[in-house]
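Appendix C reproduces, verbatim, an entry submitted by the partner laboratory led by Prof. M.T., so that reviewers can inspect both the input and the predicted structure.
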Amino acid sequence: NETEFDDNVLVFYRGHSNKAFELKPSIYRKKELINNEDRLFKDIIAKTPNDFKGCNSTFEKLVKMQHYSLPTRLLDITSNPLVALYFACADNDRKGEDGMLYRFEIKESQLKYFDSDAVSVVANIAKRPISFEVASIIKYNRDKFNKQEAILYLLHEIRTEKPHFHDVIDKEDIGRVFCVKPIFDNPRIIKQEGAFFLYGINGEKSTPADFPFEYTTYTVNKNDKQKILKQLESLGIDESTLFPEIEHVAKHLKEKYDL
């Protein structure tokens, strides 16, 4: 595909072990999760503060939570199609179902970086309660919109990480999905060549923003999963390389040698 070599288009991938899975962040998979997102966010930091000491922004904290498999409004993607193929095959509970490989095309102008103001706006929605909504105020002009109580609270959250943040939120940002490049300070993100889709809301916090990017899908036959995993392992792509933390390496070696 010619876009693979287009300087203005970035290509990312994602693998689902079950092709029926939706392109939806884990926080939106169950009503109970999104209803308690703000509590989840605050509880994990309160209970393990040392793990978040190096995180300077809410987005970085969400990345750390995602790393520990806590539900967030992030969706992992990778620039390496083989890594995505691994995830389309690897879930032990899904061996009996076809997987799905997604291929996304993102214009370079659409890519955001971890320190973007727009990223701060959407990331900090995670800290607002389930009652947070903009459907009733979205038609207001910018000045009136930014004087509403819900937005003033959101601005307060943003200023805790960016004290000099301008007192204006672009109301359109709240309803967007951003493709975000994180800081590559995490061995797992480096190994997985990772980035993230960060989801805003669709009027109300209970509903995720509509996914805006073009993508192509490829079905991975359930009967081919084991063979593909073996082939990927021979290329150096397996649990121990994609999850370089010692517990994952140990688990992989244990399974490899059937200890």
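The first strand starts at residue 9 and ends at 16. Additional entries are available on request from the coordinating office.
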